[in-house]
Design a protein that fits this description.
Elements: E1 6-11, E2 13-15, E3 35-37, H1 39-55, E4 59-65, H2 71-80, E5 84-88, H3 98-109, E6 116-120, H4 131-139, E7 143-153, E8 157-163, E9 168-174, E10 177-181, H5 193-198, E11 205-207, H6 248-261
Parallel strand pairs: 1-4, 1-6, 4-5, 5-11, 6-10, 7-10
Antiparallel strand pairs: 2-3, 7-8, 8-9
């Protein structure tokens, strides 16, 4: 029997520049700032497209949370080959941290049938790499992060390779499930001008808090965010790395000496 999957891909519109200010609530000021699709999400879309081509069928819905202008990235996904799109847009979602964002996206995803949710590894405006895992927890489904290759697709599961710090792990995950993909999983295709013309009139679902199963406003936006950004600054770059090997006692002593030398203890 042929296998087809209903797939949901989470995408986000992010600032096209690093010169972005924050407001008094610690939220990025996105007005009058050039925007683009989060680069990591392009790999998620391409992964879904490759899976659909591999299976010979299936559906791909992209879901984004943001202001009305975020529809632009959904239109871009249509130009790449996505079948449908949903925009979660409500002023009550504004100022969401990782937890509130993940919960909001999970509420939107639940409105549609899905076998597989695909997310990019992280976003360039947050870099937490936590949203995918938290969406899966809110949906109550298994997940695998850091996926670099899809090995097998069966009727009830997907087999993937996960790129961990020291090893490559092969994991089988039962549907429905969520995966986050690495940037080198596939080369994203370019948007098609022909598809742009073909999908010009394709509707995008607009969903607000009133459409959710959980309508409690305290779970969304600033009210549902237990964390708050205090300041934004460019991170310092440090690519040095050491690998220590030995018995536990020797390694513990060496680690203690290093922490003491660097005045951490």
């Amino acid at each position: 029997m042929a296998v087809t999957l209903d797939m949901c891909v989470c995408i986000k519109q992010v600032p096209g520049t690093s010169e972005v200010e924050v407001d008094e609530n610690g939220s990025l000021i996105r007005d009058n700032v050039d925007s683009k699709m989060n680069p990591f999400d392009l790999f998620a879309i391409e992964t879904a497209l490759r899976i659909k081509e591999r299976l010979g069928g299936g559906t791909i819905r992209v879901v984004s949370m943001g202001p009305p202008q975020a529809e632009d990235v959904i239109r871009e996904a249509f130009m790449m080959g996505a079948d449908a799109g949903t925009l979660l847009s409500d002023r009550r979602f504004a100022g969401s941290d990782v937890l509130a964002t993940s919960y909001t996206l999970s509420q939107g995803i639940k409105k549609y049938p899905f076998d597989l949710v695909i997310c990019g590894k992280q976003t360039t405006d947050g870099d937490t790499a936590q949203v995918g895992s938290e969406i899966a927890e809110f949906l109550g489904i298994p997940h695998q992060t850091n996926v670099r290759y899809v090995r097998e697709l069966g009727e009830g599961s997907i087999v993937v390779e996960a790129d961990l710090p020291d090893v490559v792990q092969v994991v089988e995950v039962a549907f429905p499930c969520l995966i986050t993909v690495e940037k080198d999983i596939h080369q994203p295709r370019l948007p098609s001008y022909k598809r742009k013309l073909e999908t010009k009139g394709r509707p995008v679902d607009r969903i607000t808090l009133n459409d959710f199963e959980d309508k409690e406003s305290l779970h969304y936006g600033l009210k549902g965010s237990p964390t708050k950004v205090q300041r934004v600054f460019p991170p310092s770059s440090n690519t040095s790395r050491e690998t220590w090997r030995g018995d536990p006692g020797e390694l513990a002593s060496r680690l203690h000496a290093m922490l003491k030398e660097r005045k951490f203890i």
